[in-house]
Design goal:
- The complex is a heterodimer of chains A (344) and B (244).
- With 344 residues, chain A is of the alpha/beta class.
- Chain A has helices spanning 66-73, 95-101, 117-127, 132-146, 161-173, 191-204, 217-223, 241-249, 268-277, 307-316, 331-343; strands spanning 7-8, 14-15, 26-37, 40-51, 55-60, 81-86, 89-90, 102-105, 179-183, 209-214, 226-231, 234-239, 253-259, 282-287, 295-302, 320-327.
- Chain A has a six-stranded mixed sheet with strand order 8-9-10-5-11-12, sandwiched between helices. Chain A has a four-stranded antiparallel sheet with strand order 4-3-6-7, with helices on one face. A four-stranded antiparallel sheet of chain A has the order 14-15-13-16, covered by helices on one side.
- Chain B has 244 residues and is an all-alpha fold.
- Chain B has one domain.
- In chain B, 78% of the residues lie in helices and 0% in strands.
- Chain B has helices at residues 2-17, 19-41, 48-70, 75-81, 84-88, 94-114, 118-126, 131-158, 162-186, 202-211, 217-240.
- In chain B, helix 1 crosses helix 6, helix 2 packs antiparallel against helix 3 and helix 8 packs antiparallel against helix 10 (202-211).
- The longest helix of chain B is centred in the middle third of the chain and has 28 residues, at 131-158.
- Classes of the chains: A alpha/beta (344), B mainly alpha (244).
């Protein structure tokens, strides 16, 4: 609790003292948050901050604690210990104020199927203290952002899952919330709908602080400014995809195709494998089996640019170098690596 | 209060747009018609007051059953469909959610109760009863429905599945009515309705006075109390769900 000063908020409410000076400018602060379900810790000692205007991807395997964290931020759950604040408001003491600031899309869109899209969005707006005039002014933009203009008078139950998901996002942004929380927004969508949803989320960047969760790696890289990786209730890494790649993946993988021509017959493969493994910067050598033409595919994982050393090693060893390819480390590699490290 | 009206309005509109409310109401009115002709009027000459008493007696039971069935539409359905999340993440107090849902179901059950008014009105074709007696009986039916719905609201705040809410409401109502019989068995010399235990039975102890054309403050207070306690408990349960 350093640098904390009480601050007047709209409506005459007082924000609780911020955790740090920097926190006063943060949209979200989690400070040593732990959440137990029974004796099982779903989230453990979790701390992070999110600045206003950021689009954050929350990445983790099923059961990593993503949904629990999002539900605590949405004031649906309280932490067992630690503190959650949204724009300076404490989630335990000032949940009502936080609810005015957020729009939340859970993993299943919270819609009333018998209502038309318009009636539902008007209802959702009124729930967020909007008057009818304000809703009528906001509605065209929301319908445009979510691509719902042509189904506005349709009962929601007549819409596809993809469109129901759009209605779910529309209800979350109808009141133009400062913070938009999307839990698995592309779950259950087909490839075309995923692309549409991705474009929709991209369109919302800059209008709100966005926190979205997914376990689909490619998705998060395409929509988020920063990624928080969660594993078994703990943050294992955070940063942009490039930052994470630089920190954890370095230069990634090198794939080579080589033709074994080493004297020694059966021991040739072991000799080359040992030579490749001895190259500085190579951590792992994945040596495939030779095909009918005697060509072997080898994948090297390591740090730094090892291509020149690999080429020299293969050629000097007498084998034929048929192909050498640098593969940039992707989010998938980083995620797998971090998951392995966390488990270890 | 604005949020209560908003939630109640949406809920009542849902009752009117979906078939479940109509089905329950239709079944209740059908059985009321059968009971009126087959049991209350019967095939023997019967006093008009006796016809009304018999009709109200069975209608009370049917109103309880209707209230129990309506409990599936209360909080448990919002949880099962995921829409409770919308309400919980909006700046709405838990008490407003409970009251909004309850008032909508109360308005609908009041409509259903009133829809059977034509049956006692038929008594005037060949007989005569006091308007006050009819009004008292219908006030009793309304309060019986209101208390059952309040208990149903509490039951549905405890579970996630509408069917479980129906079973739990039925169980709670059965326990309340069973107090009358426990009181009667444990002390046969004293009227069960005047024992402490017997006062917990909405139908056997308190509705009977309304059925007989007697409106007592103590009965009104009982129904007001059971409704208040049930709704307060429902609100507490919803608030406690953040602590799961």
């Amino acid at each position: 609790m350093q640098g904390g000063t009480e601050e007047s908020a709209p409506g005459g409410l007082t924000r609780l003292p911020a955790l740090t000076t920097a926190v006063e400018h943060s949209m979200i602060v989690l400070d040593k948050v732990t959440k137990y379900y029974g004796s099982h810790p779903a989230v453990h000692d979790l701390s992070f901050e999110i600045e206003e205007g950021e689009c954050i991807g929350f990445l983790g395997l099923n059961g990593a604690g993503k949904t629990t964290t999002l539900r605590m931020l949405s004031c649906l759950l309280l932490p067992t210990s630690g503190r959650v604040t949204v724009k300076g408001f404490d989630a335990e003491e000032q949940a009502h104020e936080i609810r005015k600031l957020i729009g939340f899309l859970p993993d299943r869109p919270p819609v009333y199927p018998e209502m038309t899209v318009k009636a539902f969005l008007v209802f959702a707006g009124k729930l967020r203290n909007m008057d009818r005039a304000a809703i009528d002014r906001r509605l065209p933009k929301v319908l445009d952002d979510c691509g719902l203009g042509h189904v506005i008078d349709e009962p929601i139950q007549n819409l596809s899952h993809g469109y129901q998901q759009r209605v779910g996002i529309a209800q979350a942004i109808i009141h133009d919330p400062a913070l938009l929380i999307l839990d698995e927004p592309i779950q259950g969508l087909d490839p075309v709908q995923i692309v549409e949803m991705r474009n929709m989320i991209r369109g919302l960047r800059g209008q709100h602080t966005i926190l979205l969760s997914t376990h689909i790696l490619s998705e998060i890289a395409q929509t988020s400014d920063r990624i928080l990786m969660l594993h078994e209730g703990r943050i294992t890494a955070q940063g942009s995809e490039e930052e994470l790649a630089a920190r954890f993946g370095a230069d990634g993988r090198v794939r080579i195709d080589l033709e074994l021509r080493v004297a020694g017959g059966a021991g040739a493969a072991e000799t080359v494998q040992a030579a490749l493994g001895a190259i500085g910067g190579v951590d792992e050598v994945d040596f495939g089996s030779a095909d009918d033409a005697g060509v072997v595919q080898v994948t090297l994982r390591g740090r730094g640019d090892v291509r020149e050393a690999v080429a020299r090693c293969v050629v000097e060893g007498g084998s034929g170098l048929l192909r050498l390819e640098q593969k940039e480390s992707g989010l998938e590699d980083i995620f797998v690596q971090l998951s392995k490290e966390a488990e270890a | 209060m604005k949020n209560v009206v908003l939630i109640a309005g949406r809920e009542l509109s849902s009752y009117l747009k979906t078939p479940s409310g109509y089905v329950i109401a239709g079944v209740m009115l059908f059985f009321q018609g059968l009971v009126f002709n087959g049991y209350a009027v019967g095939d023997q000459p019967t006093l008009s007051t006796e016809v009304l008493l018999r009709f109200l007696e069975v209608s009370g039971g049917l109103t309880i059953v209707t209230g129990v069935l309506f409990s599936m539409r209360l909080l448990a359905e919002e949880k099962a469909s995921g829409t409770m999340t919308l309400l919980f993440t909006s700046p709405v107090h838990e008490g407003e959610i409970v009251l909004g849902k309850y008032l909508a179901s109360l308005a609908f059950i009041a409509l259903v109760v009133l829809a059977s008014l034509y049956l006692p009105a038929l008594i005037f074709v060949n007989g005569k009863v006091s308007y006050g007696h009819i009004a008292s009986g219908y006030l009793g039916l309304f309060l019986l429905g209101a208390s059952t719905l309040a208990v149903g609201t509490f039951a549905s705040s405890l579970v996630k599945h509408p069917f479980l809410a129906v079973l739990l409401t039925g169980g709670f109502v059965a326990i309340l009515e069973a107090t009358f019989w426990v009181a009667r068995i444990s002390d046969p010399s004293t009227p069960a309705s005047s024992t402490i235990l017997g006062t917990f039975a909405p139908y056997y102890t308190h509705f009977r006075n309304f059925r007989n054309g007697i409106v007592q403050l103590s009965d009104l207070a009982f129904f007001a109390g059971i409704i208040y306690v049930s709704l307060l408990a429902s609100t507490r349960v919803l608030k406690s769900q953040r602590w799961r």
